[in-house]
Design goal:
Blueprint: H1 6-23, H2 27-33, H3 37-45, H4 64-75, H5 79-98, H6 101-112, E1 118-121, E2 137-140, E3 145-156, E4 163-169, E5 178-184, E6 190-192, E7 206-217, E8 221-222, H7 228-264, E9 266-267, E10 270-271, H8 276-304, H9 310-335, H10 347-355, H11 364-377
Parallel strand pairs: 1-4
Antiparallel strand pairs: 2-3, 3-7, 4-5, 5-8, 6-7, 9-10
Helix pairs in contact: 1-4, 4-5, 4-7, 5-6, 5-7, 7-8, 7-9, 7-10, 8-9, 9-10, 9-11
Flavin-adenine dinucleotide binds at residues 87, 119-123, 128-129, 154-156, 198, 201, 206, 356, 359-363, 365-366, 369.
């Protein structure tokens, strides 16, 4: 970590200390009990609820690289909490970047303190990877309101959050007919499906968001009509870095656990650490995580610099880091033998949690589509 400057080292130390004290000891319990709102508020007090939101409205005004450092450390404590926070940060950033001054002044002070929590609603039952085919409609009622109809699938925070950033169709088919509209909790016509029973991220609520004649002020639209899909994709550039950073932190935690375990466990009269297979596996795990971290930081620097190939690098990092982190977590489980398969050792939770990082915010196949399309365009 020697490439970090003094401020970044302080950020890492703060996030690490919080994660080790407040998140790691509770992560297994939260799988049963759900997210802890008080802990989310404590994270907000550290400035982690508006990491790259401007300081004018209470954000931390930090860089994407800083965010990657923070999410890696938080995820070493609890992947589900860190990843949930990353989605909230993505929504807050969208409001800060594309909202009006009035919208920013209204929402951001509440979001950066996590007095209000935000969810991102793009996916629909019929449109996942092909997100631009979304069918949720928003039609004006001629009276300064949109009437929204449709449903959003797999929404992280559904029924828990206070504001939903809904990508909906205000125009023709295709990406240019999509707008981003903020829908507040308790708006008549907004309802939620049953909580999904998931392999991982079990601390987080995930559900369908239903919009049935849901009347929302036109003033809640971010930017002009037809810009919503662009905003959603720009949000995902940074979102993908954060999802990758969370995967990296989870895998680092799994490696830390494996490193201690192989020094304790004896078979054939020797510590597991004395077998060359164990040593080589540990070396590969460490190397793979270091390579992942380097690519992640490179992509974050590109996004900070608004480089022309930032989107490509964010997709490359998301694909590489999440695949690698999952493999490393699985290797950590293998080094634990049968004990790795037991919940008590917590490595199986990490493996379960990291599986979805290869699927959401664009599957890793879609990351390859983004990268190759950009390469072939040149
Ligand atoms: C726990 C969880 C939380 C989520 N949270 C949110 C959220 O908060 N907000 C939100 O909007 N969404 C969320 N999602 C949705 C997630 O982003 C989608 O599941 C994801 O984009 C994939 O869409 P899909 O599930 O419809 O799969 P599909 O698009 O049906 O894909 C199925 C398979 O086909 C492959 N495929 C599809 N198209 C292509 C192609 N062109 N080339 C090659 N392969 C292709 C995919 O890679 C995948 O392997 C969440 C999902 C989960 C599981």
């Amino acid at each position: 970590m020697s490439e970090l400057n003094e401020d970044q080292q302080l950020i890492v130390d703060t996030a690490r200390s919080f994660a080790q004290k407040r998140l790691r000891p509770n992560a297994a319990r939260w799988e049963e009990e759900g997210l802890d709102r008080n802990v989310l508020r404590e994270l907000a007090e550290l400035g982690f609820a508006g990491i790259y939101v401007g300081e004018a409205h209470g954000g931390s005004g930090l860089s994407r690289l800083d965010a990657a450092l923070i999410f890696e450390e938080l995820s070493r404590g609890c992947i589900a909490t860190a990843a949930f926070l990353s989605i909230h940060n993505m929504c807050s950033w969208m409001i800060d970047s594309f909202g009006s001054e009035e919208q920013r002044a209204h929402w951001l002070p509440q979001l950066v303190t996590m007095e209000k929590i935000a969810s991102y609603c793009l996916t629909e039952p019929g449109s996942g990877s092909d997100a631009a085919a979304l069918r949720t409609t928003a039609k004006t009622d001629g009276n300064e309101h949109y009437v929204l109809n449709g449903s959003k699938a797999f929404i992280s925070g559904a029924s828990f959050s206070d504001v939903y950033v809904v990508m909906c169709r205000t125009g023709d088919a295709g990406p240019k007919g999509v707008s981003a509209v903020l829908v507040e909790n308790e708006t008549p016509g907004l309802s939620f499906g049953k909580l999904e029973d998931k392999m991982g991220w079990r601390a987080q609520p995930t559900a369908i968001v239903n919009l049935e004649d849901c009347k929302t002020p036109v003033a809640n639209r971010l930017g002009p009509e037809g810009e919503g899909f662009k905003y959603a994709m720009k949000g995902l550039d940074g979102g993908r870095l954060n999802i990758a950073a969370c995967a990296l932190g989870g895998a680092q935690d799994a490696l830390d656990r494996a490193l201690s375990y192989v020094k304790e466990r004896k078979q054939f009269g020797k510590q597991l650490a004395e077998f060359q297979n164990t040593q080589f596996t540990l070396a590969d795990m460490q190397t793979d995580l270091a390579a992942s971290r380097a690519l992640l930081h490179m992509a974050a620097r590109k996004l900070d610099a608004k480089a022309h190939d930032a989107t490509r690098y964010c997709a490359m990092a998301k694909r590489f880091v999440t695949d690698t982190a999952f493999k490393v977590a699985d290797q950590a489980l293998q080094l634990h033998g049968g004990y790795g398969y037991l919940a008590d050792y917590e490595v199986e939770r990490i493996v379960r949690d990291l599986r979805v990082h290869r699927i959401l915010e664009g599957t890793n196949e879609i990351m390859r589509v983004i990268v190759s399309r950009d390469m072939l365009r040149e």
